Amino acid sequence: MYREYETFIIKGNWEEGLDEYGFPGAFAAFYVPGNGKISNIKRNNVKDTEEMDWKALNLEVKKILKEEYESEWEPQIIDIDPDEQFQFSFTLPENVKPNEVKLYYVHVREKPMDSLEYWLKKIDLK
What we know:
The chain is mostly beta strands. The chain contains 1 helix and 8 strands, in the order E-E-E-E-H-E-E-E-E. Strands 1-2-6-4 form a 4-stranded antiparallel beta sheet, with no helix packed on it. Strand 1 (2-4) and strand 2 form a beta hairpin. The longest helix is centred in the middle third of the chain and has 15 residues, at 54-68. The chain is globular.
C-alpha cells in the first residue's frame, strides 16, 4: 500500500499463486465513518460474470464481514479481478483520516460440490 497525494494504491500478489479452486472474483470492502463513499475507484473488474448473482454475492460478503467486524457503518464493496498480482486505487472522502477506515480484502474459493468459502485480510491504511 502506498499513497500518491490523496489517492491510495493497494497492490498485492499471491506468494504461492492462485489455487485451482479460485473463484472468478474477489472483493474489497470499505467501512468509512458516517457511511462516506470512496471515489475515483480504479481496478480491474471481474470479467465474464454475466451469469453471477452479484446482489446475492454482496449480501453474502456483508454477512461474512459482519461475523468478523461489527460496525455501525455499512460496507462499501467493490469487485476485483483476482490476478496473481492485483492492484486497486481509490480516494477517501474529505475529512476522513486513513486510520478511521477499515478495509478488507475478501478472497473467495469455490470447491466443486461445496459452498463458497471466504477469507478476509485486513489492510491498514496509513
